[in-house]
Amino acid sequence: MSTIDKPVRGSRSGRPIMALLDLLGRRWTLRVVWELRDEPLSFRALQAACEGMSPSVLNQRLAELREALLVEAGESGYALTPRGRELMALFEPIQRWAEAWARAQRAG
Amino acid sequence: MSTIDKPVRGSRSGRPIMALLDLLGRRWTLRVVWELRDEPLSFRALQAACEGMSPSVLNQRLAELREALLVEAGESGYALTPRGRELMALFEPIQRWAEAWARAQRAG
DNA sequence: GCATATTGCTTCTGAATTCGTAGCACAAGC
DNA sequence: GCTTGTGCTACGAATTCAGAAGCAATATGC
Question: Does residue B3 sit in helix, strand or coil?
């Protein structure tokens, strides 16, 4: 049976952001996309980059991300699609924000 | 026992973005923050906005988000902190991106 | 040919997380 | 008193994830 047999949660609200938040709001999904931001990675390299994420979940996430047209499988492994790269570019400000956020957290 | 008894996954990598991705990469977390973007919401209003999300998980997420200094509880319910509002502001481009993404998905 | 290694991926079992319902304690209104 | 609404908790069931093992396919060396 397919791992993708139901529509993305919230997709029927008609608000694309809901579908996106739901897709990215699954364990490891954001991390997987993040690790692919610079270069394509093989299945096992991706698994190692995610510090031992189990292959079953990785395979499931890759299937979801390919269906979402954010990741594609090519000769050199898995890579972001142009659309996926667009999305990651939008995360750069968030990365910078996270630095300041971490400092505030340590300050308590 | 506390619902928050272990450090955020990936936090020991020293890269704040990992801790953030891990925090937001839990079911409903991004959605909860999103629903609070405009106005404070009461516990039950928030639960309704998330289409019947179970109160146990909502309570857990609120605890995590409060610990992360992104959400605070006040007179008028739960609201984003200034820091949380900063983060949501960074999501506006992502929302616009999601519109185009949804169109591409429907096109197959 | 044959062994070895590496790859993508599957399968399995037990643990962790999440769900959904019910319900508690409290406050306000009547 | 009784009802209504609130934030929140308890608990069993369902889902998801983790971790280890292993399989088929391909490549490499001898």
Answer: coil
B93 to chain A nearest CA, in Å?
A: 7
Beta strand pairing call for A71-74 and A77-80:
antiparallel
| Through-space separation of residue B4 CA and nucleotide C12 C1' in angstroms | 31
What are the distances in angstroms from CA B82 to CA B14, B19, B69, B86, B103?
24, 19, 9, 6, 33
Let me know: does A90 contact B93? Beta carbons within 8 Å.
yes
pTM: 0.86
Buried b (16+ CB within 10 A) or exposed e, A38-55: eebbeeeebbeebeebee
Both structure tokens of A27: 């364990």
- The string of pLDDT tens digits covering residues B68-105 is 999 999 888 999 999 999 999 999 999 999 999 999 98
A101: nearest CB among B16, B26, B28: B16
User: What is the per-residue pLDDT across A34-85, written as a single tens digit (0 to 9) for each?
Assistant: 999 999 999 999 999 998 799 999 999 999 999 999 999 988 899 999 999 9
Contact B28, A29 (CB under 8 A): no
